Amino acid sequence: MSTHEAAPQSFDAEALRRRYLAERDKRLRGDGEAQYIEARGEFSDFVADPYVEPGYTREPVERRVDVLIVGGGFGAF
User: Which of 47, 29, 30 is nearest to 38 (CA)?
Assistant: First the structure.
């Protein structure tokens, strides 16, 4: 085994699932989407895309792929 390979470990998948659900439940709010404010007034700049000219349009891009990874984060490799 190389230094980069982790030794196989057994784990309790159901215990892990319960742990993730418990952590998620800590962050859920009863007011759901009502907790958010509309991006207008002093927050209206958050709606604009700073990387395109106002009024820019284009035809949609369609591509067929076998695999698509969106957002690898800091730990992705």
Answer: 47
